[in-house]
Structures are given as structure tokens and as C-alpha cells.
Amino acid sequence: MATLDQQPLLGRPRRSGPPLCKALFLTLCVVSLVSLAALVAVHLASANHFTVCAVAKNPTSCLALISREVVRSGVVPLTQIELLRTLLKRSVSGVAAAAEVAHRVRNLVDPVVLKQQSGVSDCVQLLDLSRDLLEDSALALRSSSRLGKRSHSDDVHTWISAVLTNYDTCLEGLQGTTANYNVMKTPVEDLMALASTSLAILTSLSPPAHSVEDFLKRDDHQYYPSWVTSNDLKSLIQGGEWLPSTGVTYTEGL
After folding, report:
1. Which long-range contacts (CB under 8 A, 24 or more apart) does 216-220 make?
2. Closest by alpha carbon to 141, among 72, 214, 68, 92?
3. CA pair distance 196, 84, nearest whole angstrom
4. pTM of the model
5. Is residue 249 situated within a structural domain?
6. What is the pLDDT of residues 19-64, one digit of tens each?
7. Where is the Pectinesterase inhibitor domain (predicted)?
8. Would residue 5 count as lying in a domain?
């Protein structure tokens, strides 16, 4: 009896194991390399930020602010100029909110109490002026190429330094009124931290050209309220508290 060769009705299945495994392996390798590169970039950025904050008045606050923005940015680390723009943007929003609080406080103050009314009114003026300076700073740094121009970077140094002086003057004017001071203390101190960190980053990107002596010789202190005299500014500088246009806000750092 003749026998027929037994053949399967269906052809043998193609083996897809090795190519599939190879593709999966390559994918995992690529993901690992990208993750490693991101970790290295974040580490290098963190080390750079630590160096920037080392000269700050409050390095811990500076690092906390920068770390928060780095986390918000995701895997791709922010460059210093991008970080500076981000902090200035937050400063503009923050000073607008603080000015609104100051306006409400002023409206609640008894007009008879002239000292309270004067302190709050001065603070409102200082915050409004600071908002304009921050907006000018953000505009000047809109293009990276502008930072390379000495005139632009020096202007921003002066503006942010003036903003810091305005914040400090605002709180000093409210110290005699506990209630008003307590209301404004936290938002203004938060703004001071933002401005100080911004100034630290700016100084690392483009060190200021003006010395303290240059500032003392200048008469165009248009970035401060009219009632802040040149003698007042000189007293602050010579007292070792503020160096408004040098990029170093305090004698021992920002």
C-alpha cells in the first residue's frame, strides 16, 4: 500500500523571537542612554546652580527657588538665561499681587493715623515702581543676544538692584505698624528672594561693569522714588547693606 508523505497543512511558523528581542533590547538601550544623559545634564546644571547661589545672601533660599523651577521644567534642564527669564516672570506676577494687597491695606488704614498711611502709601509706590523695572528687565532679556551687550546687562543689573532696595525700604517703612508689617512681610520677602536669586544668576552670566565708586558719583537715580535722596542711598551703601548698581546687593553677597 502506497504511503503518502505526511506534510503539515500549515507551513512552519516563522520565528520572530530573535528580531523582536533585538528590537526590544535596542529600545531599552536608547531609553537608558537618554535617561543617563538627562541625569548627567541635571547633575551638571545642579552643580552650576550651586556655584551661582554660593554668592547669594541666602544660598539656601536661592537653591530652593532654582530647584523648584528645575523640577517644574521637567527632564530638559533650564539654561541660566531661561531660568532668569522664568524668575523675572514670576517676580512680575508676584509684585503685582503684593501691590494689590498693599492697596487694600492702605484703604483700610485710618487716615487719621498719618504714620500708618504714609508707610503703606510709600510701599504701594515702591511696589508699583518695582513692577515697571521688572517688566523692563524681562523685556531687555527677551533675546539672548541682548545679554551680550554691556548696556543691556548693566541696565538690568541696576533695575533689579533698585527693586531689591525698594522692597527693603517698603518693609522698613512698615516696621512701626505691626499689623501692616505682618501682612506685607511674607509676600515682600518672597519677592526679595526672587529678585536676589535673579541678580545672582545675572551676575554669573554677565558681571557688572560699574563699581561702588561709579555708583556714588552718579546722579541719575531715577529708579528710586523721589523722596529717596542720594544721601539716603549713600548711607545704605556705606553702611554695608546695599550696593544697588553693582550686581552685589549686600557687601557680603546678594
Report:
1. 218/245
2. 92
3. 11
4. 0.66
5. no
6. 666 666 666 655 555 444 444 344 444 446 678 888 777 888 999 9
7. 44-201
8. no
